[in-house]
């Protein structure tokens, strides 16, 4: 009888003390709180939406003071520029990539005539057009300038980015000055350099 009753009684050596169960409960709560805090820190990184695309520049509005009416005369002279740009540059034996902002400037070097800009297009390393900045030709006043700015976080152009700028005029005119200014940095080092536009002339045997 006693042995049967003792077999039904709980083994006190197996059951934990209420104080031990309380301590384990407290540790479990602390662990859950720590896990929740970690999840709250990681969630913004895991679910953050990609940065919004940069708003497209309306050159006609941004540089209204630099522009004038298109000439009514025939555009007898024309030309173009290829402008190398470096949205990103590889450094440290190619292990580090540094991104740069890019400012393309088109200067009318003539003191007397308007410069008609027919096209400003931006291309990436693979030669794919990224943006076109003119819906229609614009006329730049004598000695005036228009610019296109590409922020540092817009890396669509890559290491071989470039611009094509097409221009025209009613007659003999000082050749425009077209260049790109890159500005950027890494850690405490800052860099700025200029890339000159190259006239798109046909090369071949004479």
What separation lies between the terminal Cα atoms? 122 Å
Helix/strand structural class: alpha+beta
Strand content: 35-45%
Radius of gyration: 33 Å
Sheet bearing the most strands, described? 7 strands, antiparallel
SSE string: HHHEEEEEEEEEEEE
Kindly report the oligomeric state of this protein. Answer: single chain
SS summary, helix count: 3
- Count of DSSP E strands? 12
Question: What overall form do the CA principal axes indicate?
Answer: elongated
Mean pLDDT: 80
Which bin fits the share of residues in helices?
A: 10-25%
Low-confidence stretches: 1-10, 35-53
Written overview of the protein:
With 206 residues, the chain is of the alpha+beta class. It has a domain at 59-198. Helix content is 20%, strand content 37%. It contains three helices and twelve strands; from the N terminus they run H-H-H-E-E-E-E-E-E-E-E-E-E-E-E. A hairpin with a 4-residue loop joins strand 3 (88-91) and strand 4 (96-107). The termini are far apart.
SSE diagram, text form:
Elements: H1 2-8, H2 18-47, H3 59-62, E1 67-68, E2 77-84, E3 88-91, E4 96-107, E5 115-123, E6 129-132, E7 138-140, E8 145-150, E9 162-169, E10 177-186, E11 189-196, E12 198-199
Sum up the structure in keywords:
alpha+beta, 5-stranded antiparallel sheet
Short description:
The chain is of the alpha+beta class and 206 residues long. It is built from 3 helices and 12 strands.
